[in-house]
Amino acid sequence: MTTQGHCLCGETGWVYQGTPKWACYCHCDDCRRNCAAPVVAWLGVPIEHFRWVGQAPKMFESSKGVLRYFCETCGSPMGFEADHYPGGMHLYAASLDDPEDFKPTFHVNYESKLPWLQINDDLPKYEGTLLKAPDDLRDYSR
């Protein structure tokens, strides 16, 4: 299975071969501020089958060991890579070529949810980061 995505202007894109490891919503302040959105949707993929296409993204180290990738031309957020998620690339679901096919399966950092955002789904809601989710969601070698 090939999964692809791109930025607003189309200059920066990505391709992933295989099935994404997971799909979720994140409510943390860093993700919200990076995207200027009340919640951010992500998919996680093993980096060994992932590559950037087109113009290489710019990187911003938002904290030690955390890289956030974005298009240099239009500024669209594209991805997230962190030392504490070795072997994984986290991609913004809104950058998918076909975002309507995205199906999140859980929430992370739910304790940080904005109080005015109403969530009415039955998905699991983890307090804290993906590091607090089940092992099979964090281990990109499986």
Q: What labels describe this entry?
A:
142 residues, mainly beta, Metal Binding Protein, Guanine Nucleotide Exchange Factor, Chain A, seven-stranded mixed sheet, 2 helices, 8% helix, globular
Description:
- With 142 residues, the protein is mainly β.
- The chain has a single domain (2-138), classed as Metal Binding Protein, Guanine Nucleotide Exchange Factor, Chain A (Beta Complex), CATH 2.170.150.70.
- Helices cover 8% and strands 37% of the residues.
- It contains two helices and ten strands, in the order βββαβββββββα.
- The strands form two sheets. Strands 6-7-8-9-4-3-10 form a seven-stranded mixed sheet. It has a three-stranded antiparallel sheet with strand order 1-2-5, with no helix packed on it.
- A hairpin with a 5-residue loop joins strand 1 and strand 2 (12-17).
- The model has no long low-confidence stretch (mean pLDDT 92).
Overall structural domain count: 1
Number of helices: 2
- What are the secondary-structure elements, in order, as H or E? EEEHEEEEEEEH
Q: Which word captures the global form? A: globular
**CATH first level:** Mainly Beta
Give the averaged pLDDT, no decimals: 92
Major sheet attributes: 7 strands, mixed
Neighbour order of strands in the largest sheet = 6-7-8-9-4-3-10
In the CATH scheme, what's the topology name?
Answer: Metal Binding Protein, Guanine Nucleotide Exchange Factor, Chain A
CATH architecture: Beta Complex
Low-confidence stretches at least 5 residues in length (pLDDT < 50)? none
Span of the ends, CA to CA: 17 Å
> How many strand segments?
10
Helix content: under 10%
Beta-strand proportion: 35-45%
Class computed from helices, strands and strand pairing? mainly beta
- Rounded to an integer in angstroms, the radius of gyration calculated over CA atoms is 14 Å
